[in-house]
Amino acid sequence: MSQHARDHFFPGVPSAAFVALASALALASSLLTTGPGRAAPADDAAAAAAKPAAAKCDRSKFRIILDVGHTKESYGAMSARYVPEFEFNLNLGRKIEERLKADGFAETYLMVTEGKARPSLMRRVAVANKRGADLFLSIHHDSVPGIYNESWEFEGKKRPFNDLFAGYSVFVSQQNAQYRESLRFAKLVGNAMASQDLQFARQYDQWFMGKFQRELLDHDAGVYRYDQLIVLKMTRMPAVLLESGSIINRDEEVVMASQAHKDKVSTAVTTAAAEYCDTRTAAPPQVSQPQAQPKTSQPKPRTLQAQPKPQAATRAAARKR
Ligand SMILES: [Zn+2]
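Above: query sequence and zinc ion SMILES. Below: predicted holo structure tokens.
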């Protein structure tokens, strides 16, 4: 997510108090989450038992869009060692793409966008809705609100860091036209991450997150509700955003850059996509945009004039729910 967006939002509250509170909560969270491995969610077994054998999907035709969060120009957060989030997102996105394709998801599309933040978000939505897909997954790495940052020296320069918060998180928007399917995929992703012995970030449902406080929708999978995210609310297919971990956390940044971690996340996403694909009901949710684009000589729109249209469509769909 954007570092800029997270700055300047706890006016008048002493940061020491916040840090003390955050420490206490982080400790409480760690106490809650350490110990013997997390038990598999009980409903996994039930879901597996209920899985209709005939529902197996054809992976070669199942379309997944992997959205690389941010752009080179508008890079998102900055890590504790001054590496832009976009680089982490791109590296992880490539790894996930490789893994999905190796496992038969040939129609996986890695979406890399250029330019400034907001136009790039609109462009992602426009491209996704035009292509159509069965799933949309946006890949990010997390940071913390600027007020929580401490300072350290790295390569001769003072850099912000925060070692209190760590973990992945999964977000869905209830404004997505296919919210239920989004949530279903989000839970599969979160549970698959947990199965890789990864912990989710506990802080998002806490009051001290201010305007970034989110409703925790699933306490096992680490799925939070984030209605306003453009790439989640305006895409017409089930859409999920994954924060792989915190790059402002000095230890976790090193983990995020490791091959081992990228392998874990790639495995988790591929497992989740396979389960989602296999457990879709007989009448799979339709991608609202027709897929076959007529091959005419009409020039492709280079800008986003059509943008208000999908938004209106999404709102209309939301009203229908
Ligand atoms: Zn981001």
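Residues 1, 69-70, 76-77, 85, 140 surround zinc ion (CB under 6 Å).
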